[in-house]
Every structure is written in C-alpha cells, then in structure tokens.
C-alpha cells in the first residue's frame, strides 16, 4: 500500500474515534472537524440514558427498605410513631382525673368514694398535679408501642420471609413492649406524685426525678419486672386481636362510622386486657411507691399485698370497676385517634 494511502486510512480511522494521528516526529497532525463530523454515523454515537420519573425520584415508601451490599436497611416510619404519640396525648388530657381516683384505689385498697374525698380535700386546683409524667410517659410509650411494633414486624417479614406470621406478631409485640419499658422512670415519678403521702416530699416532676436519680439508676427502674410482665404480653394480645375485633363489627361506609368502629374495637380490647392485668398493676404500683431501701421481687411484693388483703383474690381487684371504665374510654380514644391521625399524616405526606 502506498504511503499516502496508508496515512489517509490512519487519519480516517483515528477521526472516527475522536483522536489525532501522530506524525513521524511525534507532533499532532491537523485535520478537519467537518471531516470528523461527516464520518460519524448515528450508529456510532451511543444513546443517552433516559430516566423516568419513577426511576429518578424515590417515593417515601421505597425509602423504608434499601438494599445495600445485600443487606436491608430499615428506616422508621414517622407516621406511626407520631400518630401513636398524638393519640396518647389526647387521651391523657381527657382521662387524667379518672385515672387519679383509680390510682388511689390501687395503692390503698379503698373504695371510690373515699378516694374522691381525698382528692376533694386536696382541692380542685391540684386535680392535674402530677400530669406531666404520665403525659410524657404515655405519649412516648404509645408512640413506641405502635411505631416499634410496625417497625419490628417489617424487619422480621423482610429478613425472615418464611417465619410464621403468628411468631412475627408475638416477637414484634414483646419487643415493642420491652422498648416501652425504657420509659419506666416517668411512670415511677407519676406514682410518687400521685401518692398523697408524698405531697410535701416532692415539689414537682423535676424534683421527684432528681431525687430518685440521686439514689442511682436502679432506683429509677424500681418495679421494672412488673412493667415488663404487663407491657409485652398485653401488646401481643392487643395487636393480634385488634383487627379481628374490628372485622367482627358491622361494616361502616362513612368516615364517622369507621371512627366509631375504631373506638369500639379499641375500647373492648383495652377494657378486657386492662382488667386481666389489673393485679400486675397493683403490684407495680406498690413497688414503685417506695423510695430507697431494699429491692423486693415481684413475687415477694405480690405475696405481701395478698396477705395484707386477707388472702382474698377479690381484694386484689379493688378499683377494677373504675379501671374497666377508664380503660374502656382511654383505649377507645387512643385507637380511634391513632387511625384518624395516621390517615391524616399519610394523606399529608403523600
């Protein structure tokens, strides 16, 4: 092949790839961009990648689970946490006075009339004394109850898809109840402030919390065993029966009717479970009402109270009627408020 033909061939080849041939002296040779453009065909130009809206923008639901190097990253759903907290806030503000009467019955084993007389002597201006601890505790507790349960359920379903749904429900309920128990110091302070014997010992929530904290972190969690025995199992029953009770009610097509069904299903479950675990709450209240001194086991305190009340099982249920009424109202409000807030937040976020 003649040298001139060889150079032309090399120039044409190098032009197709956008590079310049070198001369024998190592200097770049000049070539025309027009020639380069003419030599380029549509088939030689790689197509630009196209991105659809669904591919370029991730939705909030798609962000809850991300695959990264074969592992699944779980992000909490703030809607469930916020809805649970908001529902508990509404409930506490509405039912605190009733709960205060019930507390006196649990602690002292007295009738409702005597508990009401105690509160009346203290004055109506003190009716909401001690509301801050349950407001903080219950708001955070119910928030964790609903949010953590849904979160643990999603984790188990994605990581262990072959696991029995009943096992997943039980594990998620127990774990969410255990997470709630981390907030036991708020419940502990609430017990101290509502006990009339401590009326002159603690000025407010901060003073009570500072006092028990000065005795050690263990003092803050006095009665933790009773809290765990109550939270975990009751959560399992609540979440396993919640949907079944609601589906057993007459179907409603209006928003008001659905709210009523949510209230009824929550009220029925809350009243039954609260009554079943009432003796556990009695023991918890006694354990948490003590400041300092020896730590007694759940069984020891139970036997002590049982002996004090004449070994009568019925006496362990002093205040159960008022507790049933309170739970009926409280859990009806919580369940209905949770569904309303959850629907509103989901609509707003979408």
TrEMBL record:
InterPro entries: MCP_dom_sf (IPR023395), MCP_transmembrane (IPR018108), Mito_NAD+_Carrier (IPR052465)
Keywords: Membrane, Mitochondrion, Mitochondrion inner membrane, Repeat, Transmembrane, Transmembrane helix, Transport
Gene3D superfamilies assigned to the protein according to its UniProt record, in alphabetical order: Mitochondrial carrier domain
Keyword Ribonucleoprotein assigned: no
A GO cellular component entry from the record: mitochondrion
Solcar repeat ranges, renumbered to this chain: 75-155, 164-248, 257-344
SUPFAM superfamilies (UniProt xref): Mitochondrial carrier (SSF103506)
Mode of membrane association: Multi-pass membrane protein
A molecular-function term among this protein's GO annotations: NAD transmembrane transporter activity
Pfam family, one: Mito_carr
Keyword field contains Aminoacyl-tRNA synthetase: no
Localization annotation: Mitochondrion inner membrane
Highest taxon of source: Eukaryota
PROSITE patterns tied to this protein: SOLCAR (PS50920)
Family under the similarity heading: Belongs to the mitochondrial carrier (TC 2.A.29) family.
UniProt-recorded name of the protein: Solute carrier family 25 member 51
Organism name: Strongylocentrotus purpuratus (Purple sea urchin)
């Amino acid at each position: 092949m003649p040298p001139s033909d060889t150079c032309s061939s090399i120039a044409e080849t190098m032009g197709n790839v956008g590079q310049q041939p070198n001369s024998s002296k190592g200097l770049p040779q000049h070539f025309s961009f027009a020639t380069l453009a003419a030599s380029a065909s549509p088939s030689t130009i790689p197509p630009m990648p196209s991105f659809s809206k669904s591919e370029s923008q991730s939705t909030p639901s798609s962000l809850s689970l991300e695959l990264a190097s074969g592992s699944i990253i779980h992000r909490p759903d703030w809607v469930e946490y916020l809805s649970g907290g908001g529902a508990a806030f509404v409930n506490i503000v509405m039912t605190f006075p009733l709960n205060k009467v019930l507390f006196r019955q649990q602690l002292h084993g007295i009738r409702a009339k005597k508990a009401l007389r105690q509160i009346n002597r203290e004055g109506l201006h003190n009716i909401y004394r001690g509301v801050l601890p349950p407001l903080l505790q219950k708001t955070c507790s119910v928030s964790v109850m609903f949010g953590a349960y849904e979160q643990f359920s999603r984790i188990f379903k994605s990581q262990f898809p072959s696991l029995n749904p009943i096992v997943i429900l039980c594990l998620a309920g127990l774990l969410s109840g255990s997470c709630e128990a981390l907030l036991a110091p708020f419940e502990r302070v609430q017990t101290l402030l509502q006990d009339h014997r401590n009326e002159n010992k603690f000025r407010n929530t901060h003073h009570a919390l500072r006092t028990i904290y000065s005795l050690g972190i263990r003092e803050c969690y006095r009665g933790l065993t009773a809290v765990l025995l109550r939270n975990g199992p009751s959560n399992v029953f609540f979440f396993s029966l919640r949907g079944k009770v609601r589906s057993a009610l007459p179907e409603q097509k209006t928003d008001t009717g659905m709210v009523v069904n949510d209230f009824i299903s929550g009220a029925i479950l809350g009243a039954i479970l609260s009554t079943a675990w009432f003796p556990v709450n009695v023991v918890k209240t006694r354990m948490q009402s003590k400041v300092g001194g020896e730590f007694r086991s759940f069984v020891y305190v139970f036997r002590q109270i049982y002996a004090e009340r004449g070994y009568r099982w019925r006496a362990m249920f002093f205040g159960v009627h008022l507790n049933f009424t309170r739970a009926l109202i409280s859990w009806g409000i919580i369940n209905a408020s949770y569904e309303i807030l959850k629907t509103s937040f989901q609509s707003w976020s979408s």
